[in-house]
Amino acid sequence: MRILILGATGAIGVLLIRRALKVFKSCQLILYVRSVEKVPDDIKSNQSVTIIQGQLTDQDALAAAMSGVQTVLSALGPSVKKGPFHPSNTPLANAYLTVIDIMQRQGIKRLICLGTPSITDPADKFNLAFSILVHGVALGARSAYNDVVAIGRNVRSADLDWTIVRVPLLTNQDTEEVIAGYIGDGRTNTWLSRAGFAAFVIDEIEKNDWIHKAPLICTA
């Protein structure tokens, strides 16, 4: 199995890499990164890992990175610290358009990507805590909010086997057990460990339980 990981140098991306290497003993991971120096040394030296440096705007480099890939995993998302200063031209949503175009041209069908509750779903119901959370982001980091919403729109319109894994507030707890559902279903809450996200995404590669769906996952 050959897997491309975007957003590989962030906290979630590193956990995705480690989880994939643990679960898939014979996989080949392609990390497409802007800054190679941010990749941990043990991952750099792993023979199952290939690192390709490039920008999300570089179509040729992205296309080369996707060669022979069966699945694309993306941990791309706006920086929490830079949220209020996020660019207003939806750079991440535009990058997804490039990724999706290359995937379709190369016949790659499976995309599993990070989302947030700002991406709504018809199965969602009203929940006060999530309403406050989403409206807070929309007011305090409008450009980041618009970018995330546009990501959801672009991924949903793609002719791919996509899954948008929506996450609430993230923690650094070690727990990997999660609940997958929808906002206001009486089961989900507003907290998720990053390790839980990584475990869910890697499991979904094999299970394919959420194709063309956007579950909200949280710590059990």
Structure overview:
The protein is α/β, with parallel strands linked by helices and 220 residues long. 37% of the residues lie in helices and 21% in strands. It contains 7 helices and 10 strands. Helix 1 links the parallel strand 1 (2-6) and strand 2. Helix 5 packs across helix 6 (142-156).
Index terms:
alpha/beta; globular; 6-stranded parallel β-sheet; 37% helix; 220 residues
Judged by helices, strands and strand pairing, the structural class is alpha/beta
Which of globular, elongated, flat, extended, rod-shaped describes the shape? globular
Radius of gyration, in angstroms, nearest whole number: 16 Å
Estimate percent helicity. Answer: 25-40%
Could you list the spans in which at least 5 consecutive residues all have pLDDT below 50?
A: none
Count helical runs: 7
How many beta-strand runs?
A: 10
